[in-house]
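The protein record filed below.
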Amino acid sequence: MPKKTLLMMSVVLALTVAAVMTLPMTPRAYGFPEPSSAPESWQFDFTYSKPAVIAVKTIDGVKWFWYITYKVENNTGEDRLFIPEIVMSTDQGDIAVAGKNVPAGVFDAIKQSLGNKLLESPVRVVGRLLQGEDNARESVAIWPAFDHDIDEMSIFISGIDGETEVIKHPLTGDNVTVVKTLMASYNLPGTGGRLQEQAVVPHGETWVMR
């Protein structure tokens, strides 16, 4: 094959790889399967609040944290384990797992601020969830606030639906298991203001496989 043709093919391949690497890290971007429109497995009743912020005094000074409160209820017909994973992502490429790098005192500050005696710590709420409204649990997901401006955020909540699927990883080709996950999206209009004055506008929710 002529060297000129090989060079052109190499350039095209390099451009293609670069384009793929700039795709957003979302399930839809890589062609992940769509979840069923109706529940195919068990599903907890799950409600949650809009993201809010709180300032808490820590050993490193006053720090800001994002949080949502939630309530989970088991009406699936049998007791089940509740092991949530709640992840926040932003338009700036931030990905944060709830609870990571969050001092224990932040939960106490949120509970005191809200005055909700039923609110349990994220650690204590994990475990067997008994059936019925009387056994519903309330807790909170917390993330350290980012030190830069963001305009959009999404919160991914897994562990509340039993639907799973095994797929090929789009980059490695390995088999991976994806789970049905609730995605809630928000717009954060305005920049440069104080975090406690930041508007948070719901932008819809959907189920994804992730």
Q: What stands out?
A: Residues 3-21 form the longest helix (19 residues). Confidence is low (pLDDT under 50) at residues 1-31.
